[in-house]
Amino acid sequence: MNSKKPLNIPSHDPSGFDVEALKRAIANRLTYSVGKDIHTATDRDWLHTLCYAVRDRLIERWMETQRSYYHSDAKRVYYLSLEFLIGRTLYNALLNMELDDTARKALSDIGLDLEALREQEFEAGLGNGGLGRLAACFLDAMATLGIPGMGYGIRYEYGMFHQDIENGQQTEISDPWLRFGNPWEFPRPEVLYPVQFNGQVTRFRDAQGNTQHHWVDTEVINAMAYDMPVPGYGNNTVNNLRLWSAKATRDFDLRLFNSGNYIHAVDEKTASEKLSKVLYPDDSTDSGRVLRLKQEYFFVSASLQDILYRFKKTHDNFAALPDKVAIQLNDTHPAIAIPELMRLLVDTHQLSWREAWDITTRTFSYTNHTLMPEALETWPVNLIGLVLPRHLEIIEEINHHFLIEVRRRFPGDEAIVSRLSLIDESNGRRVRMAHLAVVGSHHVNGVSALHSQLMRESIFSDFHRMDPDKILNMTNGITPRRWLNQANPRLSKLITQTIGNGWLKNLDELKKLIPYADDPAFQSDFLKVKTANKADLAKLIQSKLGFQVDPNSLFDVQVKRIHEYKRQLLNLLHVITRYNRIRAGHDLAPRTVVFAGKAAPGYARAKLIIRLIHSVAEVVNNDPATRGLLKVAFIPNYNVTTAGDIIPAADLSEQISTAGTEASGTGNMKLALNGALTIGTLDGANVEIRDEVGAENIFLFGLTCEEVKALEHTGYNPAAHGHANAELTQALDMIGQGYFSPETPDLYRPLTDSLWQHDPYLLMADYTDYIACQERVDALFSDPAAWAKRAILNVANMGQFSADRTIAEYAEHIWNVQPVNSCLLKQKRAA
Ligand code: 26Q
């Protein structure tokens, strides 16, 4: 092996892109990879066969892309994220390679159905929600723009839990997505890095009189790489997502096996592999578990070792690191990378502190996704001292240098020193990970214009004073390939027939639809598409929930994690108000209110909200007095796949968070891109959606962020709002007094009590305006042409929210990277 002699291997069979070639590939893969024949192959065998045949067609492009990055010595971007919410891969890969029709034909020749096979695939649900899905959209956009980007994360054995509803209540079931194997991953057993934990730091002076630090007596766990290809759309670029899996070390084996207690030894070995076992299912509260900290360091350490190994293949010192490497921290979850890079440069590679700090701060940048205090990550100093003792020393040294600078800038102001310190001394000593991330990064960004502005004014205002150029805005975006082309084939086809397919790579081309907004023929085609999508969703609701909904009713959709600040309860107060009005004889337009979303398993109030939605649905859906004018459907297990089923069928998109709480939102963009009108507050990216589509094409209501602030200042009295509105009182009384839970009348009292007494998210203050706004929605919906016009204008003006735009901004303003064109392969394929 590995002889210096040139190897002599014939070139591999070319992987053809026509129907006959794909059929032969399927035959080969069924036999030689799956090991079955047509008599024994199960549906899953056929799925895996097809995945392998498709994957084969990615591999040459993948290797060629990686070779071109290497040969051009291009600057690379590494996106470090504890979450990648990828979803299913098969159809995405087919569409991005423009192989969907070929595959459909090849399969149908064989006697198989592509759509049926697609449904068999498990989704890679390695994320909680917005932040994880954003990472997946960014990978798609980087590949599509030809940017040398790579994702690093954890190959969780169990992704986001599966949500079941039993008696109206959420139960969590584990998600063993790898049980039948993952045809998209390439295990790289040779890419294995040791990661240390615990132990202690020893110090000594070397011959030059410098203090050296050794981190010793550690427990070591190996990180093994698994690679997943990330195809760009129609450009032959295939980037890489590298996920780490924990493996016990050999050393571990020998040490323990020799101790004579074989069973105990195997137990210990398994324990060390539990690091990559499961994704933490909390999306807004810090769970504070040691295992979570270990997960963070585990994947950060392996990723940095890998990044430095790749860099050193073409460089013999680290001075050029910031010119060749940009590392983006997706929230603070990977922020421990900052002291880790310092440790590698100073302790392992003997750079001076000054040189190392200069390199580190020119390499990292950090994205903040929340302002909510309970979601800001902090770790007890003692815990870090135990698990990562050398990192704690480095964090303290970073803080020491930083606070000297703070004191120099603000002489005599000890208050600002304690506010800015990386260590919070106020309740036990805790490391503020966000401060570490800000201090160690050259740029920090928020995810919508409003959010970035609030960062400057609130949590990072002192940092902003120190360095006004550090905080940037990079408004989030979504990939139109998955969220329009893949999720909504009917609308995609109509758009492409009308304006060509340039929108897939340049979403601004949707503006060409503007002249059609007033065209009755186009309006009618547009409404037909929407109705067909709604009929599909109605079928899904019938099969999953067992009742009928009317595809001609207005589909009112709120899909997102269940959280008090997102105010699913406010939506429900409208549902109840509507129910009461119908019972009182009002003639209201038919509505189907669709909810979907998961609650964190430990978030009791969010779970109670899910239960209340089901209780209300039970009453409303079965009361003949509603005359079929109102239905409530909670679709279980919201994930990337069900999002793709629901979003294309929405007429109305509920984006109703309390102003100032939702950093950006991305579901708002997905729904508008699919022709839903937004009802929303001026929060997160809703503000920019309004700017793009025009205030006349969006339903805005509620307090603005300034008004919220003012109210909190003057004192807020929720009960006053309650007493001032009889319908609100009535709805709250029904919830609180057991109208929807006659067997347990007090069940929902905690929800209503909290609204009357505290109402931290100001539902009571926004209720009246919300109801009035819903009346405007009804009025417009009664005029289909007027509605269609506004929905078309929403689609036409969504170009700004392509993840391609977002990534182009990061590339220019934060990463300083350029696209690399893999010309070689293009020439080869053209020939
Ligand atoms: C932290 C510590 C311990 C365990 C878990 C966590 C944790 C995990 C996930 C904290 C937060 C998250 C996820 C946050 C998230 O999804 N935020 C959303 O990010 C989107 C993308 O920027 C925004 O559009 C949303 O507004 C924001 O809520």
Could you write a compact summary of the structure shown?
48% of the residues lie in helices and 15% in strands. It has 831 residues and is α/β, with parallel strands linked by helices.
Describe how the helices and strands are arranged.
Blueprint: H1 19-34, H2 43-72, E1 76-80, E2 84-87, H3 90-96, H4 100-110, H5 114-118, E3 124-126, H6 130-145, E4 149-154, E5 162-166, E6 169-173, E7 186-197, E8 200-205, E9 211-216, E10 219-231, E11 238-248, H7 250-257, H8 262-272, H9 290-312, H10 321-324, E12 325-330, H11 337-348, H12 353-363, E13 364-367, E14 378-380, H13 381-387, H14 389-409, H15 414-420, E15 423-424, E16 430-432, H16 433-439, E17 443-446, H17 449-457, H18 461-466, E18 471-473, H19 480-486, H20 489-499, H21 520-545, E19 554-559, H22 568-583, E20 591-596, H23 604-622, E21 630-634, H24 640-646, E22 652-655, H25 667-673, E23 677-680, H26 686-693, E24 699-700, H27 705-714, H28 718-724, H29 726-736, H30 749-757, H31 763-781, H32 784-796, H33 803-815, H34 823-830
Parallel strand pairs: 1-4, 1-12, 4-11, 12-13, 13-17, 17-18, 19-20, 19-22, 20-21, 22-23, 23-24
Antiparallel strand pairs: 2-3, 5-6, 7-10, 8-9, 10-11, 14-16, 15-16
Helix pairs in contact: 1-2, 1-4, 3-19, 6-33, 7-8, 11-12, 11-14, 13-14, 21-32, 22-23, 22-29, 22-31, 29-30
